[in-house]
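Give me the fold.
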Amino acid sequence: MILQFKTFLKLLTFHRRKLSTNSYVDFLSGTVIFSKSRDIYRNLSFEDWIYSKIDFKNKHPGFLLMWWNRPAVIIGRHQNPWVECNLKVLEENNIMLVRRNSGGGTVYHDLGNLNCSFLTSRSKYKRRTNLEIMCKALQKWNFDVSISEREDIVIQGEYKISGTASKLGRDNAYHHCTVLVSVKSEILKEVLNKNRDGIINKATESVKSKVINLQELYPILEVEDVAQEIAKCFHNFYGIEEDRVEYIYPNEEIYSGIEENMKNLKSWEWIYGRTPRFTLRKEFIAEETINLPVHCSSNYETKKLIVEVIIYHGKIENIYLKLSDVEICPSMKQYFCGICMKSDIILQTIKTWTECNSQYKVLEKYVKQTLLSIFS
């Protein structure tokens, strides 16, 4: 009898686990999913899990996933973090940096920013329809909203309140966008205010826009108010009468693979190592006497010194020091080429280089100032 009871418990546990593991299958088309997580890595991983694991062929109009999270700066898949944001401010304020899987520009998130992700089949992907649903929802509070030529949502024809980006696969697609409700605008401006002097960049750069919080125009508005109204308009637009709403905390037990997705999103190799090639170039007037190579005609006491660094996938691909257009100390390449653009590694490499080549000690400050400039 005891053995039979234990067997029954095991079967019951297995049955429950099986239901739990496959609970995502029970999402009906047109379901609005609210993530209960406030972690940007977990939410983006959940979005990617839905995109990659679910067959949307017979699930029109797909799902609407919404969330809001703790402070973070999110760059597009093809962007350069050293260009897009002030890394020093992020570190000082404990703000996370994330590279998402979709294209588009850089955005700042905090708990005053609503994120909406429309997930569907590639054949049913309609970005403008999604934006129209959002505009319809915002009209509840008599906001004068419209869709710009760049397919952002603007208010009063001037202020951007929602950026937009997408990922289009062979079968599935998603369009995600933001709504600025009560974001800390001073922090937003500070983290996205980057000094780009000396950076020659071919990566996708964000377009600067004037932004405004909805709460500035309607002080009692909250993020959840906007989320609920967008959910309602989504259902109304597609004629869905049932209350198809799910509140989910994305976890590994139910959504197998989400932790691995999070690990990848947090890695240096993804955030920085996917950065397209760019050049860092600084010019100085060298105050010291710097000896040129023997094949040059003479020495120069006060001349223009150029430090030029080519960076690819987050690592130094090449480095040049030029004095009066003549390359000096080319042997430094063996020390710097291939190292990651991490401040501690850079400082250690400079130390090793000058310890092994004391004649170049006079150049140390110029190299250091150039390489560390992108971290401020």
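The mean pLDDT is 89.
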